[in-house]
Write the structure tokens for this entry.
Amino acid sequence: MSTTLAPASFEAEALPHLDTLYRVALRLTGDPSTAEDLVQETMLKALRAWPSFLPGSNARAWLVTILRNQFINQWRAHRRAPTEVDFEALPDLPNTSDPDPEGRFFRELVDDEVLEAVDALPAEFREVLVLSDMEGLPYNDIAAALGIPVGTVKSRLFRARRILQGRLRRYAEMTGLLPTSQAAE
Amino acid sequence: MTTLPFDCEAVLERLDAFRHHELSPEETRALERHLDACRRCLHAEQFERAFLERLKAAGLHCGCPEALRDRIRERLASGLPAIDSFEFRRLCGRFVTGVTVVTMFDAEDRPVGMTANSFASASLDPPLISVTVDCAATLHDVLVAGTAFTVNILEAKQESLSRRFSTGDDDRFDGLGWQRVEEHHLVLDGVLAHLRCEKVSSCRAGDHTIFIARVLGGDVTEHGRPLLYYRGGYAEGEEL
């Protein structure tokens, strides 16, 4: 079987983004070993497609696009079932009568609590939130990676943040980080 | 052009752009003035900022495991196959095949069988066929050691038979109808046709071996529809 050797330029451009790719894969798949497979497949696919990469363009966004397509094609069947979201239940922004209007309680939460809440988001909200707010990709790159308009990225992100804030707040209330704002549910 | 002064709604709409430093200097100043004066908007900004900082920190909780990084470096260093296995399966899956079960008796005269869609006719004179078998399959070593085997061509309703002979079950013949024919051949009940074969040579092909065999005889059912395999799934063919 014919083989192509990894061009040095590919290694230099792509390898620094393995952390991002792995973290995104982990949030998409919810499983470390599936995430590893996904990252490896992504890198091989990217190497194959390397001739079509536009030098000077954003390699990270390009790799994330490949990873996400690979995930959709290969692992869609194993995708976690979407969580039901009550679209009417977006919490309001804090108002001045809130016990912690500046959101200091966020700092008290530990990583696992935050990540668990992220993983519980519906897939289409989770992916924009992970790419934007956890990995810091610009809206344009996210739109290109997901094949949706920038406006859709922004509106999904808005909802994703509100849902997540609401859940983290409820969690903080349950664990006593925040006094309960409403009658216990 | 400028829309000074902002009301609360306009401020909340622009907080994201504000954080990304995407506002014009005039808009930035106007927004900052509003935040100085409006507690509610200031809190909204602080709340969102605290949330985003926490989220970003949680995002950095882990990186790519070192073992994976090494594995990928190694893969890249050794070059990669021109296509990956997923793509290979996808391409080959577009070729429709029938389904056979290859059967034989092992050295202790126990029945052995395996589903194969790699069966093909190879030569007219002499009448030769080939069947390609995974080196890891139980049948592989029995085929290497023996000579007589039978190719059973499955009928449309025998999908379960195909599955039975392609999964890890060790008692594949349990409760199954079959007959011994001409001493060394095992013919499954209800098949469309069977070919009695005698191995003449073999050739290693990657992780499989291609076995070439002379066809000694066989039998065919006059009416029936074939079981088909396409894109990794089963289908039923028409009677022609």
Notes: Chain A is about 60% helix and 0% strand. Strands of chain A lie at 3-4.
